[in-house]
Amino acid sequence: MKSQEAAFKQSRKPAPKPKIVQPRNTATPSRVTKNAARNERRKVARKVASMLKAQKGGVEGEKENVGKESAQKEAEEA
C-alpha cells in the first residue's frame, strides 16, 4: 500500500524545470578591434607623457602640453 502512496505522491510533484543556459554577453569582433585600438592609443599617450615629463623635468604648464601631444599622437595613429 505504501508503494502506491509513494508513487502517487511522486507523480503529483512538479517535474523539474529544464536548465536554461543564459547567453553570454560577449564582445563582437568589431568591438574587440575598437577596444584594442583604444588601448594602443592610451599606451602611446602614457609613453609620450612619461617622455615629456622626463625631458622637461616637471616644468610648469606641462599638463596642458601633455594633453595636446597625446591628442596629436592619437590623431596620427588613427
Describe, in plain words, how this protein is organized in 3D.
- By secondary structure, the chain is an all-alpha fold.
- It has a domain at 43-78.
- It contains three helices and no strands.
- It has helices spanning 2-12, 29-56, 62-77.
- Helix 2 runs antiparallel to helix 3.
- It starts with a helix and ends with a helix.
What is the topological layout?
Elements: H1 2-12, H2 29-56, H3 62-77
Region (Disordered): 1-78
Biased composition (Basic and acidic residues): 59-78
Biased composition (Polar residues): 23-33
A few lines on this structure:
The chain is an all-alpha fold and 78 residues long.
Give the low-pLDDT segments. Answer: none
Q: Report how far apart the termini are.
A: 81 Å
Instruction: List the secondary-structure elements in sequence, H or E.
Output: HHH
Structural class: mainly alpha
Gyration radius, in Å: 31 Å
What would the keywords be for this entry?
single chain, 78 residues, mainly alpha, 3 helices, rod-shaped
